[in-house]
Amino acid sequence: MAANESSDANAGAKLVGHAHGRMVLARRIEVLARALAPFLPARSSILDVGCGNGLLAARLSKLAPDMTVRGVEVHARPDCAISYDLFDGERLPFEHAAFDGCLFVDVLHHTRTPEVILAEARRVSRQFILIKDHLSESAVDRATLRFMDWVGNRAHGVALPYNYLSRAQWDAMFESVGLRRARSEPHVALYPFPFSWVFGRGLHFIALLEVRR
To answer: Taking 90 as the threshold, does the pLDDT of residue 9 lie above it?
Structure first.
C-alpha cells in the first residue's frame, strides 16, 4: 500500500510538473531574462550557479551579446544550452576571482546552508553577484512559496528544503560573507493577472550585490 501510494504521488507530481513546464516555463525564462539583463555590467564574464538546462543563461546572452557565461550544476545535464561544469553544491571548481560575477536564479532557497555557496561565489567573483530569489515575511508567504516550489520542482527531483528568508535575513547573510546591496528590484512580474495576486505580491526579488574587498 505505501509503495503504491508513493508511486501514485510521484506520478501525480510528474503530471503537474509537465503541465507547469508547458504553461509557465517559457514565459518565466523570457520575463527573468529581461528583468536580469539591465543589472549585468557590460562585457561581463558570468558564472551561472545552478544553471539547470541553461536556457535562461542562453537567453540572457542574446539580450546582452557582449556577455560570456558558463554554468555549474550538481547533476549532469546533457540537454544544457550552455557550457557547464559539475560541482558538489558547495565548492566551486574555479580559481579566486575567475569571473566578473556570479548569477543565482532561484537556487539559494534550495540549499540548507546558502551562506556556504554564497561565500564561494564571492571568492570566484571580481565585482558582483546577481541574485533572483524569494522573500518570505509571513506564514502565508511561506505556504505560497512551498506550493510553488513543489509544483515547479518536485517532478524533477530538485532538493526542497523550503529555506525561505526575510529581507532582514538576506541582508544579514550578505553582510556576513562580504557583500553589499548595490541595486535591487523588489517586484518581478513573473505571473500574469490574476495569478500575480497570489504568486507575485512581493514574493520575488532581484538584488545586485557588490563584492567587498
So the answer is: no
